[in-house]
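so the lab meeting is tmrw and i was supposed to have these ready like two days ago... anyway. pasting both below. for each one the top line is the aa sequence and the line under it is the structure tokens. i havent really looked at them closely yet so no promises
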Amino acid sequence: MPARRVNPNRVKLHRSYSVEELARCLDVHKNTVRHWQAKGLVPIDKGRPVLFQGAAVRDFLTKRNSSRKTPCSPGTLYCFRCREPRAPALGMVDFVPMRPGSGNLRAICECCETVMHRRVREVDIAKVMPGCTVQFTQGQPSLSGQTAPSLNCDFKRTG
């Protein structure tokens, strides 16, 4: 199962947590908290039970989460297969509107040929994808119109 990011805002800044309390607060296993301690989470002191200050825990988790982020520079979209920002193949991008004024950019990765997506406002397309050919497509059809009537009807026809 893939690792998930823990929300550091669940930790109260001015509270001390034991390993069990911190694990319960963040909905992780106790061994995860001990692993974080080995990776640099500093306890209040060397005594037992091991206690952690909430502000130190929040700082540790915030730094840990931000180190995993890979922002996309202009002209790139994030490829989930390559796990890094990549330029679109042949510089071609499709814009699929989702709402008035915004939508998804869709392109093919230049390395692994996976479809990549990026959420963008329509007015920011020139800044986000400079030098790329952007083709505007139709949005997804909304639910409208009438459905076909059911042929399995129990009503008896009179007349």
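ok protien two:
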Amino acid sequence: MLRILLALAMTIVSFASLAQEDVIAALEEGGNVLLIRHARAPGTGDPDNFVIDDCSTQRNLSEEGRRQAAALGDRLRTNGIEVSEVLSSRWCRALDTARLAFGDDAVIPFAPLDSFFGDRSRRDSQTEAVRERIAAFGGPGTLVMVTHQVNVTALTDIVPREGEAVVLEPSARGFQVIDRVAFD
């Protein structure tokens, strides 16, 4: 019985690795979008005294999150994935994720990627602006967007873990979800 369970576990690991490699191959082709939930930042939402330009008032990346963000960038570089543009929410945890992965100079703050966790009235307009930006992307390389769980879920119905990404293929209708990928 133990042998069967071990064999099953090994098969599951193999399939997971194969799926990850297929996603990486899709990114290598270019023309796709990598929609990333920011790396590990303990807690939920933001404190009552949240100020967008003051990171000391926000939920921030943990040390684990900082390592996770750096690993994301390393994995893409190791696989030779060309990143043509990096857009990020203006929240510090998203900006830090993007900067640790891709470098300070590569990151462009993009307000439609900002969290609407505390203000759902912005959900539809922000989601539509992001959908339009995704649909307009045709390459070369990969468009990276770093955002928050609520934004990813509004776009894709997927609830990603921190540091997890959803790979999207732009289309005339907006996009198709290719798969999910974790970089830690």
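from a quick look at the 2nd one: Strands lie at 33-37, 83-88, 107-109, 142-147, 164-171, 174-182. Confidence is low (pLDDT under 50) at residues 1-18. will dig more after coffe
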